[in-house]
Design a protein that fits this description.
By secondary structure, the chain is mainly alpha-helical. The protein has 6 helices and 2 strands; from the N terminus they run αββααααα.
Amino acid sequence: MNEEEAFETLSYQKKWKDKYGVSWCDLCDVATISCPYCPASSCNGQACDSCFDDIDEFNRKKTRVEDYLTEEEIKAYHKSLRLKKFIVISMRDGDSEVNWKKLKSEGKLSDIDCELFAKEVEH
């Protein structure tokens, strides 16, 4: 029994289809299920004969934050996710706030970042 299964057992959480614990993948930013018989999860692209159909069904459900947002809200959501990264980078560099010009000059901003933070980068 892994750590997640032990937590589910201790907290008496309901399982999806009575066999899959539901958790959140911070890397993929999505709700996910994991197979109890193989290393597959709904976000890693793997499946065994036991979980293939269930994982396929789960992946067709609304499991992402974006599934519940408008286009404008999605843009703000993605902007906030990127901003968290830049706050951490800036604090590690000893800056008192995000230094957009420095991040850009160091190549730490992608074209999408420059578009999302156009006002900040220009100043």
